[in-house]
Design brief:
The complex is a heterodimer of chains A (485) and B (453). By secondary structure, chain A is an alpha/beta fold. Chain A has a domain at 79-337: Type I PLP-dependent aspartate aminotransferase-like (Major domain) (Aspartate Aminotransferase, domain 2), CATH 3.40.640.10. Chain A is built from 15 helices and 13 strands. Chain A has helices at 44-55, 78-84, 87-91, 102-119, 131-148, 166-173, 191-197, 220-229, 262-265, 324-362, 383-389, 393-402, 430-449, 451-455, 468-473; strands at 123-125, 156-160, 177-181, 202-208, 233-238, 257-260, 280-282, 294-298, 301-305, 366-367, 378-381, 409-410, 419-422. A 7-stranded mixed beta sheet of chain A has the order 1-7-6-5-4-2-3, sandwiched between helices. In chain A, strands 10-11-13-12 form a 4-stranded antiparallel beta sheet, covered by helices on one side. A two-stranded antiparallel sheet of chain A has the order 8-9. In chain A, a hairpin with an 8-residue loop joins strand 12 and strand 13. In chain A, helix 2 packs antiparallel against helix 10, helix 4 (102-119) packs parallel to helix 10 (324-362) and helix 10 crosses helix 13. Chain B has 2 domains: 66-76 and 353-452, Aspartate Aminotransferase, domain 1; 80-344, Type I PLP-dependent aspartate aminotransferase-like (Major domain) (Aspartate Aminotransferase, domain 2), CATH 3.40.640.10. Helices cover 35% and strands 14% of the residues of chain B. Chain B contains 12 helices and 15 strands. In chain B, the strands form 4 sheets. In chain B, strands 2-8-7-6-5-3-4 form a 7-stranded mixed beta sheet, with helices on both faces. In chain B, helix 6 packs across helix 7 and helix 10 (336-372) crosses helix 12. Chain B is globular and about 80 Å long. Chains A and B meet through helix 1, helix 2, helix 3, helix 4 and helix 5 of A and helix 1, helix 2, helix 3, helix 4 and helix 5 of B.
């Protein structure tokens, strides 16, 4: 039931609004609203009960194992939330002057420094509001670099076929055309194919390493020098940084520009689809183009670097300083981890993934890249089950929900048929992993013995399988009070 | 180990299952030449108690000055239930609802959000959020240029009364796609965009006209005339609005003869704390016929196998994870939790509650301006009606005055000299429903003291 369906004319949560009706006579009638907006009219308790009940219809990290590949659904420490929501921090206005901002700015400055160290980059801007905005900023900096050199011939961004969809979409938003590079049979980028297309028109390449195929690209140095020799730059998509934290740094791989998804590697909450944060880091030659604002420090005083300080900056990406509250959560998390804790993130997430892969292969599942070492995630392909039993990956995914596990990422990357991309993260215990492995094995058995059972899943959720085609064909996007449903 | 549950025995047995001698062996595919040493520059780990001490000290250092700044971020009361509910782990730690059956909570909330935003703006439909008001405007400009097939010019008219940071963000984001933003001057007496300035563009090929309401100065624009001009000239009308103001102002869906085509804005006034500028959320609503040009996630109502009502992400063929380089935008992660908080906020306040908030802000700002106007040399700069912000002229340089007020623990408004040097010594002030009579008296006394020294 919708909150609207509990609405009754004349009911309201009266304690929540000013008790006195303010004088609106300063606003002439011509500007005034003629009819009140159709918002629900409900009591405070109805509201609390309604949204509490709705929350209970969600899977979440707090309630279920959530091995969504390339999303790094690790535990979100409660301390980060509580401390980022201290009253003075919540009340700080974005335009507060420097004398009321030193504490906040110290946190941001130190986070910038920490990100420089873990990524091996020369400078960092925290302002992008999400990974995709970080990508936009990174490609915009690549463009600014070439333009500053008067190199107008570079019109193309290279993107491996395993890349997130945001990569090509971000390149296009920066005015580039996109050329796709195939992956080789071993999951690494096909360097020979790359060699054929890289050239004076190449502005750069966007690389995720480890890639979304769940493997570390072993020829990264060769790729870097190929692209660099052709005059292009190397973009590192940090979606999978969790796998290599403290083991290898993008800066050491020869990357010119990177983004980090703080809502993945730095454990800030995903919030049902955001907010995230996607800070960017750059090598020396791209430093002048970083997006503003950033925090600078001199003689113990912090100050903002804005357009005036950074005349070559690609500019501003949001009205203020990005998702500040998310940056604070990431900073608090980094403080609790320290250097050693960061190294352990890569170690234990990789241990968990390799353990799951081995046990699932032993149980008869097909790995997409059985000869390769898993990183913090790996891919199973259910091609065989789909072909022989008519039970596809989506059926497995929906049945997993019945077993109380969130499904892994399905049908991505696009080049592996019937794939499940599984990322356990370091915060899951061995017992949880074993439970998931057993569930997958049971579903495999169900698929063999009673495929219809799996194809009809889920059964134990608030709704059964939903009709996506109807949703798109008979668009119903807003509630109308006079609508019969 | 912080946040890692493994015992030594777990590690031993897991490595044995894998057949690896130690954890380091799991990194054997990374070329040895690239392996980094220890992260020595990072500080030692702190306990939760130690970080709590650090963060409390830093929060204390910044204090809690009384805030009379608005300028795109507004200090409203947020009902206690809003963040108690939005912080529930089931909302806070879920991700994008790709598995609809396991995400009905988030999906239904977002469907309710879409419904409430459409009702508030008077538009046909809404998406489920963008990053903030500035990026929402940038996406609206891109969308308008895509959608306006009659226009080939890629020119968009942008009044100088639009928030300066929004204009800069739009330039950053759309500038690389050959879109030209043409600035419109404002009337120096009214502080609004005089519809007469548009005569210079009559008959020209313009893709869209941006219309702020209220504008950055708090001033109410002639939205009907501006919207009609856009439609007469085959341009789309993009509204940039404050959602709280819409509780009392005519909604964009009803502007002029036909209503605005796209409506966007900053959602912060609907339940997001000031929080140093983020996370907030951008909202975007539009007419039905533009739905396939909309960026970002959209939730639709559908049925399950048994015919029961349920919710799912829909029209995903617009989005980057399906359409890749041909998507309507690169946005993936949005501001879902902020939209969740806004939904709860709007449910609690309802239209009458929001109207009371809007009216109290308007009345407080008038009352503040009246008080400050009694000081010699302080007066409103523009004569037109405002919503809850006003530009005041000061007799001396604004930044010195604001610094002194800040030392007295009062944020007395925003210095406009950086973005509008032509206004001279001017500040933008705002008094939301949270500002009290004693606080406003205190502002008046402190300003008087500074100006008479």
């Amino acid at each position: 039931m919708l909150i609207y369906q509990q609405s009754r004319r004349g009911r309201r949560a009266a304690a929540q609004a000013p008790l006195q009706q303010g004088d609106l006579s300063g606003i002439p009638e011509t500007f005034r609203r003629k009819q009140r907006a159709d918002l629900p009219q409900v009591s405070e308790m109805q509201t609390v009960r309604h949204y509490t009940r709705l929350s209970q219809q969600n899977f979440s990290i707090d309630t279920q194992f959530y091995p969504l590949g390339s999303c790094t659904m690790k535990y979100n420490p409660r301390g980060c939330n509580t401390l980022a929501m201290l009253p003075n921090l919540l009340a700080r206005h974005p335009e507060a002057p420097a004398d009321h901002s030193q504490g906040f700015m110290a946190c941001l400055y130190e986070l910038q420094e920490m990100l420089k160290e873990v990524t091996g980059m020369q400078a960092v801007s925290l302002s992008p509001a999400a990974g995709a905005q970080g990508e936009f900023a990174g490609v915009a900096m690549i463009r600014a670099y070439h333009e500053a050199r008067g190199d107008a011939a570079r019109t193309e961004i290279l993107v491996p076929d395993a890349a997130h969809g945001t990569n090509p979409a971000s390149a296009v938003m920066c005015g580039y055309t996109v050329r796709e590079i195939p992956s080789g049979p071993d999951g690494d980028v096909d360097v020979e194919a790359l060699r054929k297309v890289v050239g004076p028109q190449t502005a750069g390449i966007m690389l995720t390493n480890p890639s979304t195929l769940g493997v570390f690209d072993r020829r990264i140095e060769e790729i870097a020098s190929l692209v660099h020799e052709a005059g292009g730059l190397l973009y590192y998509d940090g979606a999978n940084l969790n796998a290599i934290l403290g083991k290898v740094r993008p800066g050491d791989m020869g990357c010119d520009v990177i983004h980090v998804n703080l809502h993945k590697t730095f454990s800030t909450p995903h919030g049902g689809g955001g907010p995230g944060a996607g800070p960017v880091g750059v090598s020396k030659r791209l430093q002048p183009y970083l997006p503003v604002p950033m925090v600078a420090q001199s003689e113990g005083q912090y100050r903002w670097l804005t357009e005036g300080d950074c005349p070559e900056s690609i500019g501003r990406l949001s009205a203020f300083a990005g998702n500040a509250g998310i940056l604070l959560r990431a900073y608090i998390y980094a403080c609790m981890l320290g250097g050693e804790g960061m190294e352990r993130v890569a170690e234990y997430s990789t241990l968990n993934a390799n353990y799951m892969l081995k046990r699932l292969m032993d149980a008869g599942f097909d790995a997409a890249y059985p000869e390769r070492r898993a990183t913090h995630e790996f891919i199973l392909t259910l091609h065989k089950q789909a072909k022989q039993l008519g039970v596809n990956t989506m059926d497995f995914a929906k049945r997993l929900l019945d077993y109380g596990f969130h499904a892994p990422t399905t049908y991505f990357p696009l080049l592996v048929p019937e794939c499940l991309l599984i990322e356990p993260t370091e915060t899951e215990s061995r017992e949880e992993l074993d439970g998931f492995i057993e569930a997958l094995c049971s579903i495999k058995q169900e698929a063999e013995e009673n495929p219809e059972l799996v194809k009809g899943a889920p059964y134990n959720l608030p709704v059964k399988r939903l009709d996506d085609v109807r949703a798109a064909r008979e668009l119903d996007l807003v509630w109308k009070s006079d609508k019969n449903t | 180990m912080p946040f890692i549950p493994h015992t030594e025995e777990d590690v031993r047995e897991m490595l044995a299952a894998i057949g690896a001698p130690d954890i380091d062996a799991l990194f054997d595919e990374i070329p040895a030449t690239l392996r980094c040493g220890k992260l020595k520059q990072l500080p030692q780990a702190m306990s939760e108690m130690e970080v709590a001490g650090l963060m409390s000290a830093r929060a204390h250092q910044d204090g809690a000055p009384v805030c009379f700044i608005g300028a795109g971020a507004y200090d409203h009361h947020i009902p206690a239930a809003v963040w108690q509910l939005a912080s529930r782990g089931e909302f806070y730690t879920a991700y994008t609802p790709y598995q609809a059956e396991a995400s009905q909570g988030t999906l239904q909330v977002l469907y309710e959000f879409q419904s409430m935003m459409a009702a508030l703006t008077g538009m046909d439909l809404s998406n489920t959020s963008l990053y903030d008001g500035a990026t929402a405007l940038a996406e609206a400009v891109l969308m308008a240029v895509r959608a306006n097939r009659k226009s080939k010019s890629r020119r968009v008219l942008m009044p100088r009364t639009v928030h300066p940071a929004y204009r800069r963000v739009v330039q950053t984001i759309v500038g690389k796609q050959g879109i030209e933003l043409v600035e419109l001057p404002f009337d120096p007496a009214g502080g609004h965009t005089d519809p007469a300035v548009l005569a210079a563009f009559d008959g020209q090929d313009i893709a869209a006209l941006v219309i702020p309401q209220p504008n950055y100065f708090g001033v109410l624009e002639e939205v009907d005339a501006l919207t009609d001009w856009a439609h007469t000239n085959r341009a789309l009308a993009i509204a940039v609005v404050n959602p709280v103001a819409l509780a009392v102002l005519n909604p964009p869906g009803e502007w002029g003869q036909q209503g605005a085509d796209i409506c966007c804005g900053e959602g912060q006034p609907l339940g997001a704390p000031l929080s140093s500028g983020g996370p907030y959320f951008g909202f975007m609503c539009c007419r039905q016929k533009l739905v396939r040009q909309m960026p970002g996630r959209i939730v639709g109502c559908t049925r399950d196998l048994d015919g029961k009502v349920g919710y799912t992400l829909t029209l995903q063929a617009r989005e980057q994870h399906i359409r890749r380089s041909k998507a309507t935008s690169n946005i993936c992660t949005n501001q879902g939790l902020m939209a969740t908080a806004a939904t709860i906020h709007m449910a609690l306040l309802g239209s009458e509650g929001l109207e009371r908030v809007a009216a109290a802000c308007h009345a407080n700002t008038r009352s503040l301006v009246q008080r400050l106007g009694t000081i010699a040399g302080v007066a409103p700069l523009f004569h037109r009606p405002v919503f809850h912000e006003q530009v005041l002229r000061l007799p001396i340089s604004a930044d010195g005055v604001l610094d002194q007020l800040s030392e007295l623990d009062l944020l007395g408004g925003l210095d406009l000299s950086r973005d509008y040097p032509e206004l001279g010594d001017a500040i933008l002030v705002c008094a939301t429903e949270k500002r009290t009579e004693p606080e406003m008296d205190d502002f008046q006394q402190k300003l008087q003291m500074i100006l008479t020294c």
